[in-house]
Specification:
Shape: globular
Order of helices and strands: HHHHHHHHHHH
Number of helices: 11
Structural class: mainly alpha
Largest sheet: none
Radius of gyration: 20 Å
Distance between the termini: 21 Å
Strand content: under 5%
Length: 314
């Protein structure tokens, strides 16, 4: 049986990437405009850009205003939908109409879900270690302007993150779990692993190169260069969880688990239930990093072994 021709049949992967990028720019703009329109009737805010500036210059002041904080979260929510979720869904519909291009309906062994969560959990100490190393980035003197720009961007992101992590009530915890954990995990995995990684694989004919190029793009697009290396490692791990399992729900749920775990830990610390501060820069003991890294290697081996029973070819 010969299937009908699809709109993207024969399209070079470079053109596919340009199409995906175009969809991202278009819907990012449209959803940002929609968010700027909605903040007025929902939160009584007429100029969201001034709120964002205040969030960077007077973070504690904005944190005391629930409407301003929720307006910024709405902007984040709409950014995830317009920047990643909608473009990925539309791209998949064009790429394989009525099919399962995003690999969301493939059967997989349920044991892979807790294994994937454990993989990311035990990767945490090593990734945190690379974060501390990445923080020591010191560019040559002639690149001082670029280093200052990177530092300013990092400071801005840190202030916005600290604003998001302030959760006075259980309702704030719930909103953060949706806006910061669940939606970004779904949207980013659909976009990066579901679309970018698969197109890169189609282009380069090498899954490993595709995974790491996608991880590079995944880290770069966050524009947090003092966290570039750890985020790229995280992207690589998520890429292999998808490649080995063959089902996109595996990295989606693992990504959501890590995001959600950080939110819950921040909430518990804020309310005095635990002393551990997820936003702190304290280095873990070397023995803890080494032990967790060995356990991570074992978990990756086990994950791949279980996955091999349902070998995934893409």
């Amino acid at each position: 049986m010969i299937r009908r021709r699809f709109p993207m049949d024969g399209m070079h992967p470079l053109m596919q990437m340009l199409l995906l990028t175009s969809l991202t720019l278009i819907f990012m703009f449209l959803f940002t405009m929609l968010a700027m329109f909605l903040v007025r009737p929902l939160f009584g805010i007429t100029t969201i850009d001034i709120v964002l500036q205040n969030a960077l210059t007077n973070t504690n002041g904005v944190a005391m205003n629930a409407n301003q904080v929720n307006a910024i979260k709405l902007l984040q929510f709409m950014s995830s939908l317009g920047g990643f979720f909608v473009p990925a869904i539309l791209f998949a519909l064009l790429k394989f109409p009525g099919g399962d291009f995003l690999r969301l309906r493939r059967k997989f062994t349920p044991w892979l879900l807790p294994l994937a969560a454990l993989v990311l959990a035990f990767a945490g100490p090593f990734i945190s270690f690379t974060y501390l190393l990445n923080q020591q980035l010191d560019l040559p003197a002639f690149l001082d302007p670029i280093e200052k720009m990177i530092r300013d961007s990092a400071d801005s992101n840190e202030k916005l993150t600290s604003l998001f992590l302030k959760m006075p009530t259980v309702a704030d915890l719930f909103i953060n779990l949706i806006v910061v954990a669940v939606i970004p995990a779904i949207a980013e995995e659909l976009f990066f692993r579901g679309c970018v990684q698969q197109v890169m694989k189609e282009w380069l004919k090498n899954a490993h190169i595709a995974i790491w190029i996608t991880a590079f793009i995944f880290s770069f697009i966050h524009f947090e260069f003092y966290g570039f290396v750890p985020r790229m490692l995280l992207g690589g791990l998520l890429g292999y969880l998808f490649y080995w399992s063959g089902n996109l729900w595996v990295p989606i749920i693992a990504h959501g688990f890590i995001n959600g775990g950080q939110i819950v830990l921040a909430y518990l610390h804020e309310h005095g239930s635990i002393q551990f501060d997820i936003a702190g820069d304290d280095a873990l003991p070397a023995y803890a990093i080494i032990i967790c890294t060995f356990l991570l290697a074992g978990l990756l081996f086990l994950f791949r072994k279980v996955s091999d029973r349902r070998k995934f070819i893409f």
